[in-house]
Amino acid sequence: DVxxxxxxxxxxxxxxxxxxxxxxxxxxxxRKVVGYEVDLCQKIADHIGVKLEIKMISVAARIPELxxxxxxxxxxxxxxxxxxxxxxxxxxxxxxxxQKILIRRSDADKFKTPADLSGQRVSAVSGSSSEAGAKRLIxxxxxxxFKDPPTAFLALQQQKVSGFVGSELxxxxxxxxxxxxxxxxxxxxxxxxxxxxxxxxxxxxxxLLKQVNDTFAGLEASGEGEKIFEKWFGKDTDFYSKREFKxxxxxx
Amino acid sequence: MLDIxxxxxxxxxxxxxxxxxxxxxxxTVGLALSSLLLACPFGIxxxxxxxxxxxxxxYPATVIVYIVRGLPLIMFIFWAYFFVPIVINRPVxxxxxxxxxxxxxxxxxxxxxxxxxxxxxxAGQLEAGRSxxxxxxxxxxxxxxxxxxxxxxxxxxxxxxxxxxxxSLGFVISVHELTFAAAQINNMLLTKPFEVFGLLxxxxxxxxxxxTGLVKLVETRIANSRILAAQG
Amino acid sequence: xxxxxxxxxWYGDYxxxxxxxxxxxQGEVLVVCGPxxxxxxxxxxxxxxxxxxxxxxxxxxxxxxxxxxxxxxxRSHIGFVFQQFNLFPHxxxxxxxxxxxxxLKRARKRDVEEHAQALLERVGLAHKANAFPGELSGGQQQxxxxxxxxxxxxxxxxxxxxxxxxxxxxxxxxxxxxxxxAMEGMTMVCVTHEMNFAKDVADMVWFMDxxxxxxxxxxADFFTNPQTDRAKKFLADIRH
Amino acid sequence: xxxxxxxxxWYGDYxxxxxxxxxxxQGEVLVVCGPxxxxxxxxxxxxxxxxxxxxxxxxxxxxxxxxxxxxxxxRSHIGFVFQQFNLFPHxxxxxxxxxxxxxLKRARKRDVEEHAQALLERVGLAHKANAFPGELSGGQQQxxxxxxxxxxxxxxxxxxxxxxxxxxxxxxxxxxxxxxxAMEGMTMVCVTHEMNFAKDVADMVWFMDxxxxxxxxxxADFFTNPQTDRAKKFLADIRH
Amino acid sequence: xxxxxxxxxxxxxxxxxxxxxGVATTLEMTALAxxxxxxxxxxxTVLRTLQIRVLDYLIVLYIAFHRNVPMLVxxxxxxxxxxxxxxxxxxxxxxxxxxxFFYSTIAIGLVTAAYVSxxxxxxxxxxxxxxxxxxxxxxxxxxxxxxxxxxxxxxxxxxxTLTxxxxxxxxxxxxxxxxxxxxxxxxxxxxESATFKTFEVYLVVTVIYLSISLVLxxxxxxxxxxxxxxxx
Lengths: 252, 232, 240, 240, 232
Ligand SMILES: Nc1ncnc2c1ncn2[C@@H]1O[C@H](COP(=O)(O)OP(=O)(O)OP(=O)(O)O)[C@@H](O)[C@H]1O
Ligand SMILES: Nc1ncnc2c1ncn2[C@@H]1O[C@H](COP(=O)(O)OP(=O)(O)OP(=O)(O)O)[C@@H](O)[C@H]1O
Ligand SMILES: [Mg+2]
Ligand SMILES: [Mg+2]
Fold this sequence. Notes:
Chains C, D: Belongs to the ABC transporter superfamily. Chains C, D: This is Polar amino acid transport system ATP-binding protein. Chains C, D: InterPro entries: AAA+_ATPase, ABC_ATPase_HisP-typ, ABC_transporter-like_ATP-bd, ABC_transporter-like_CS, MetN_ABC_transporter-like, P-loop_NTPase. The complex is a heteropentamer, with one copy of chain A, one copy of chain B, two copies of chain C and one copy of chain E. By secondary structure, chain A is of the alpha/beta class. Helices cover 35% and strands 27% of the residues of chain A. In chain A, α2 (36-48) packs across α8 (206-222). Chain A is globular. By secondary structure, chain B is an all-alpha fold. Chain B has a single domain, classed as MetI-like fold, CATH 1.10.3720. Chain B has ten helices and no strands. Chain B is globular, with a radius of gyration of 21 Å. Chain E is 79% helix and 0% strand. Chain E is globular and about 70 Å long. In chain E, 46% of the residues are buried. Chains in contact: A-B, A-E, B-C, B-E, D-E. The structure holds adenosine-5'-triphosphate (ATP) (2 copies) and magnesium ion (2 copies). One magnesium ion is lined by residues 40-41, 161 of chain D.
């Protein structure tokens, strides 16, 4: 099974996005990929006792890459959904994300709740659970999907769409970015929906799944999980938020 | 634009290397080069099939060429992306996927180039070889192909330029080539898409302009040596 | 040595050879002539199966050329010289001569090269061994082409209008080489309009018209006393 | 009608026309002849400004061709027939004739087509109206080309060696058409080597050499009694 | 590879409609971009025959730029880059109509125009000079001669190469997927990411592409056979 392969190979290949601060993103100075999810992957690798190899994948390719065996685990903003749970296995939740909608501040009067965007075009990252959620929850919406979050953001700024559906944290960063540009953005208060995120593992790879869950359980117990969270989401970061979840099983 | 270049030239040139796979411009050229080199043998085989009088060779080769001409490269990339790992039962890197797709795609185009190169040779060359007692294959190898390949070098080099451009599709499956690097920069800067993609366009432009110059150079050289050969 | 038995050949609907039966004996020098389109090239090209035939047989030393084990083996004993020389432009003269023998015979490379040099000497081109065909005159190229055919040590030599693509001043140098060969007893079939060559060295002349051999006679008879009107007219035309 | 006044033309450094002054009157049939390269084509092409001139003037009915409002308007009254026919291969014969009149004249399409049919009748090709140029023989093509020029109802017709690209058996059919035109009083300038045509219908012959008109005479005088050595030699050459 | 094909799940959830809309988008885009390419390509060709120095340089630059930079980069440049610098009110209009379609159609049309103009130019060069002279002699102006005499012939001569360009253009519309347009490839991807029936989806998409391509090739062959100047 995969766990044996990983041990033989001596490396754990972890798929991350690389375009999603602070989960995984490129440090411009070192051109290395770093972030919350990268740290978690590191912990898993340490737990198994192998080296970590980070592989950047696009949002749409997360599940195919995993199923095709090009990566061992996926820690890439992977929201839990019943459909997906049929395709792959999920580890304990490593994050819980409200999915919200980013709009242009100039439209703030028009769009107050997600439902106001019915009949509009909204951008999302292709293959993301936000895309599916938008389609499911906003009536008559047209989704325009992009390969990565920044381009979906750009589409909103360039008025190509009226809203951008994504996880709150990601949107928060873009909102801040927009403050230095002519087109300022705001996030709708009301979340479209909330979803837990987890590490994805190929179906049936129970040994590897157990290793991951053990790692997470250990992190939770030792308080190290909290620390890693603090490092990326703490007070001195741009992404200050409270940790309202535990590394524990996702209840579907 | 200049400050974007000076801040990110390394990423454009080699991608994340050495912290990751080789990327950027170097990967673009490397992908194009390796695909085209690998495509050449297949192209030759296909060309031989296309000129063969045996139906068993002619029809499969022709069908392959038509299929490739009829499908967008991106379809090949998707097929390779999802099915090469299944077929060989082993994970495959994005670069490899891209090379597999490009080899498929380019083989067909190269085969058409080589075929026309072969058909441009006087029929007497094949007859002369066969009359000496050489077999069809021997004649092809020693007489026809050396001439046809030599004469088609410029067209094959032009195909290299096309291939360089086609590697940009690697972006779609996150192969770390030049376009991908530019997209990364765009994602970091966020508000300078015109500058970033303009810079990207200029990079390709310069690279291919240099290559075009090279093709012209080789072309004149070959034209000159052809005159030498045709004097008699 | 070469025997045509009821040979017929069609290009699509057009019959280019009509039921030809005739033979060439060992050591014979045969000249084939006739008006344009009469089937001379077709005939000579069937001898080494450059053209397939649809009916009849062609035997060389009792072997059916069009139904034999390896035509390649067969062809390696039959030299063929083309109107357009067809030297390999990407090889130098020596390689043109040695390529086939090295590939096909189990001879040592050195021996093959020595033989090739001797042949070049014989056609008067020893000094051009390293030249490329493109650097030679037409007459020189055709002499190299003859040497190339001889390098395979053939038992028969076929010539299809070897001098028609040459400027007049070069015709003779090629004919001299061919005459030398004829003198040495090579079996030769030559399609040519060089009537003086025929008079000087041919043992036999075939006159073809419309895919048939209309007359077969030794040159002395053919030129002085042609039997058919067609041949008379042809000879008159050739003399202007 | 056509008047050359001190016309000079250079191709780069080479002077192709040297200070030419001469004139052609209304209804005159002029034949221009002379050795190859003497400037005949250049001369006739300056008349409708296919070639620019550097010095002098060319007047047609008092209008300076090389300095007038619209050369296109001017040209539409001057028919030009080329050695290479230059029919439009993508249009059928009728369209070749009607395209320009329909575009340029405010005539009704039906009238133009009727006129075109009449012209085709006249050149003996009424039955070829729907054929494409590629399906016609050279002689037929040239006759269509003449009809095409006539379809614009020109006041002058220029011919630049209209029969030199034709097989001998077709020359006559074209000359017949030209003779017919001459008889009807069309003003014509013909560069041609057909001396019989000149003798039969020309009112005047210009003999050119080295960019100059060396002799100007009625054909009777020119052919029986050429004045210059150049012309004598030229006439001797032409008669073989 | 034990894999059971399951086309049934592609028939649910309005997926057939999605594919059909994708095909329609692809074809619309092909048609519009084709119009741009052929109109602009012809215009550039005619402008070049005028031989105005400055204009020539500009056109040569245009052609070089469009031929040497990958189509995908042109699309990105237009969609993100140019869009960032055009005035907002124009952009609003465009976005209202669907920026993905609009910009990629423009990009593809402009690039193909460069190729078309090169093809037409070499076709025009192969038309004897006498054709222009004959037309001018009849009194047609330069532009009218171009329109009625030279260009029609150039188009006929270049039917084979233009067919090829059309085919490439059609295939290139698949690149618009990279900016989120749901054309045929995009529709395929969308269904694929929802159903994970990769093989089935791409099989369907591939067959559709191939069928349309074969129709285009057939039409091209038919046209060039039909309108060849009869027995020149
Ligand atoms: N490949 C071919 N396909 C169809 N017809 C052919 C072909 N080759 C030759 N022919 C026809 O067969 C007839 C005999 O041709 P062949 O070349 O043998 O004549 P020839 O006597 O060698 O004439 P020449 O003196 O002109 O070389 C001619 O009518 C020719 O048109
Ligand atoms: N486009 C050109 N550029 C340079 N020189 C030219 C050009 N056209 C013609 N000439 C030269 O001008 C001279 C006159 O040429 P022209 O064609 O008028 O001769 P011609 O009397 O018509 O000869 P021919 O009987 O061969 O048609 C020749 O020496 C020719 O080489
Ligand atoms: Mg012959
Ligand atoms: Mg002339």
